[in-house]
Write a structure and sequence with these properties.
The protein is α+β, with helices and mostly antiparallel strands. The protein is built from one helix and four strands. β1 and β2 form a beta hairpin.
Length: 68
């Protein structure tokens, strides 16, 4: 699972760790994604950047508060 980084309007990063197959780490990953989901405002625009691993899969997703 890719690492997800949310950067809020004051530039603070809220990252997740990369997900793995270990159930304990998956629970932490899912909780971190939920925390990010809860701070995203549906009335705002965000810049999304995808970084790909050598395998061609997405390795990192960055969600950045866009300040036009």
């Amino acid at each position: 699972m890719p690492k997800v980084i949310f950067i809020d309007e004051d530039g603070t990063e809220k990252p997740t760790e990369s997900g793995t197959n270990a159930s304990d780490e998956n629970e932490e990953y899912i909780k971190a994604l939920g925390d990010i989901r809860n701070v995203i405002k549906s009335t705002h625009t965000y810049k999304i950047t995808l970084d790909y691993a050598n395998t061609g899969l997405i390795g990192k997703i960055t969600i950045n508060f866009k300040t036009d």
